């Protein structure tokens, strides 16, 4: 007879757009239950969680929720400026932590979270979902295989219509979100670090508007390699969304563009471009196979991986607090350089 797995109980802090996404995924994962929510909009949030299959009481603060229910983990999906206080509170309460990206608005705040987790031996992960997005994972897998030869160039793009779905328009408030640089472009910066590590040097330019650093153009130098990345949301809100990359190797080119419907493509030698398929696995890893999946993409894979780590008791090795701290530091450096500040 198979041993029944322990039911994992979580508190979801923040029931907005991303909180709703996480609630749907937890509902779909066997043996995981959201036992409480935290949100200032209590009636609306309780109704939303119930509709998403996660009926649970909602409290005005994490302190109230922790006092009212027993839980194994806390998932923070609040606006970025509220991450540090709630993350540290969850850690000090002895709970495992999942925190949405970016980890914080400043390196000092991020360091405080990392220090608290290290002091308490906390199992923690950050929502840098590109590390779990099937097409991006497949690129890292291909890169590590060496099949394409030397990587000659890498270009990454992330563009979006201006977001209007944040409560009280917090995403367009630099003091709360850090602008498009910290909420949108940071995804590609994190992916570059995951794939290639720290660059030897960087250059950047930043477009700024009422929402803060709204569009970033960066060049990162590695040995024999230049990586370019561009990201911003200063497009009309109905423009849509695009994430894309092109990796040029000696013997192949890998292309992905979410806006063209082709999935991940590879062109090798004299052959015509063809699909390079990817599949999701329970381990949150990518492998070649039939079909192309990006429906829930990294959101599903990252929470599967987090739950797997919770069950095994092994600390996450992907999208760690230190990873997120380093990504934040590099993105802030891009902003500073792009605005003409020497660092």
Q: Helix share of residues?
A: 25-40%
In percent, how much strand structure appears in the residues?
A: 25-35%
Q: Report the count of strand segments.
A: 16
Q: With helices defined by DSSP (H or I, 4 residues minimum), what is the helix count?
A: 10
The spatial strand order of the largest sheet comes to 8-9-10-7-11-12-13-14
Q: Classify the fold: give the CATH topology of the domain at 133-298.
A: Dihydrodipicolinate Reductase, domain 2
* CATH architecture annotation name of the domain at 133-298: 2-Layer Sandwich
The low-confidence parts are 281-294
Mean pLDDT over all positions: 92
Describe the structure.
The chain is α/β, with parallel strands linked by helices. It has a domain at 133-298: Dihydrodipicolinate Reductase, domain 2, CATH 3.30.360. The protein contains ten helices and 16 strands. The strands form three sheets. It has an eight-stranded mixed sheet. It has a six-stranded parallel sheet with strand order 3-2-1-4-5-6, sandwiched between helices. It has a two-stranded antiparallel ribbon with strand order 15-16. Strand 4 (73-76), helix 4 (83-92) and strand 5 form a beta-alpha-beta unit. The protein is globular, with a radius of gyration of 20 Å. The relative contact order is 0.15. Residues 281-294 have low confidence and may be disordered.
